[in-house]
Amino acid sequence: MSHQPPHHPPIHPARYPARGGNRLALHVGELTFFRALELASAEARGRVWMAVNFLHPEFRLPSGRSLWQWLEDMAGRGLDVRVLFWRNPAFSDSPRIFHGSPEHLEQLRARPGGWHARWDSSIRPGHCHHQKTWLIDAGLPGERAYVGGIVKTRTDLRLRARDGRPGHRHDVTLEVTGPAAADVADNFIERWNHARQTIAGPSPGDALSPTPPAGPAGGARVQALRTVAPGLYPSAPAGEQDILRAYRAAFDAARETIYLENQHPGELSLLLALRDALCRGVRVLMVVPAEPMPAIFQEKARADALKPGEGPTRYSPVFEALADLGDQPGFTLAALRRPGVGEVYCHAKLAVVDGAWLTAGSANLVDLSMAPDHTELNLAVWDAGFARGSLRTLLAGHLDRPPTGAEPADWLRDAAAVARVNRERPPAPLDGALYALDPVTYPVS
């Protein structure tokens, strides 16, 4: 067991620098996050900005307010309220996604004004503005930024809050107060100013000017990382893939442990980097949804249907690499299940390396999120106290008790052992929520 000072993965050059002087909080779960966001918005003195990805038209906060009521209440207090929606024709047939149909636009026109909205449309059908960001008092003293993967698709948060019911989805959001919050604001400002469509109804608002970095609020070093498609913004004509580079640098530097929560383990270069880390003796625990995204099933079926002599499909090497990880004794692939709830879908996008470096945000471990394609935003954190505390909190939640031992390697070993025992127990009650999956059969429907 190592008792040396924690090793910190290197800071990778990116659009935004790593800034010291930040205070951090990790919000685990939708109820926890939206309660914190409502409280923060009630304390806002000047501005509330948000970039919305997937939104159910009837989404409601834990307080019971709809998104529209919330926006109008804040605007009624004189705040500068701006919402950047994502408009993609691919969702035009989905009644569960607010995508900017004529009916949706008419709903907005019928509501009271006072807040500003723009549509950030996609540059091609397969592109996705996947960021989820919220800003409180950007450019003002005490500004706060929230970056994560939580989407506004639930309509039952009020009932769950009232009844104390657990959720069917696991997710996280990072809150940062301090100089790095200005970089999250800069990302929003760039997207706002270059949004391809504005709408009638709520005012599209004026263009935004850059905001100055806030003063120190804590001791953590934080870096905002992006994925941006080529040609999307004048500032990045070749696109950006800072998130992929940061993940690679962290995996290559790992000495003892890599903990992952992710919805979509499909980026080949990162799976190969994990294999190299495992060969060095690093322990890896990866938490994923028990039921992968349908696209994973479809791609696996295509790969399995190849005839002799046919070339590999796009993701054939990914499935082979994932299966190879399963041959390593230090690797555990796991999912979450709870009594009375069933499968808990892991929607989080988080990593903790050596209990010293942490990243969380909107990016899945898939090529679309890592290569210059989707628009993604993560925060990387160099703060051993925060990283270790977050890892212990997450594992305690998955195990229903604090993990045993004093070091992250002990915690991952404990969690992996529980997950493997639980794999043999269904449908018997599990010890905690973690149970192991077979990396070979995971992508098979």
Number of domains: 2
Question: What would the CATH topology of the largest domain be?
Answer: Endonuclease, Chain A
CATH hierarchy class name of the largest domain: Alpha Beta
Q: What percentage of the residues does DSSP assign to strands (E)? A: 15-25%
The H-level CATH homologous superfamily of the largest domain, spelled out, is Endonuclease Chain A
CATH architecture of the largest domain: 2-Layer Sandwich
Strand runs, count? 19
Task: Give an account of the 3D structure.
The protein is globular. It is built from twelve helices and 19 strands. The protein has a 19-stranded mixed beta sheet that branches. It has helices at residues 30-43, 67-76, 102-110, 157-163, 181-193, 242-253, 268-279, 294-304, 316-325, 367-370, 384-399, 408-423; strands spanning 19-28, 47-51, 80-87, 116-121, 133-136, 144-148, 169-170, 172-177, 197-198, 220-228, 240-241, 257-261, 283-287, 331-338, 342-346, 350-353, 357-361, 376-382, 434-437. By secondary structure, the protein is of the alpha+beta class. Strand 2, helix 2 and strand 3 form a beta-alpha-beta unit. Helix 6 (242-253) runs parallel beside helix 7 (268-279), helix 7 (268-279) packs parallel to helix 9 (316-325) and helix 11 runs parallel beside helix 12. The mean pLDDT is 89. It has two domains: 30-166 and 180-213, Endonuclease, Chain A (2-Layer Sandwich); 241-437, Endonuclease, Chain A (2-Layer Sandwich).
Q: Which key features would you list for this structure?
A:
445 residues, single chain, Endonuclease, Chain A, 12 helices, 23% strand, alpha+beta, 2 domains, 19-stranded mixed β-sheet, 30% helix
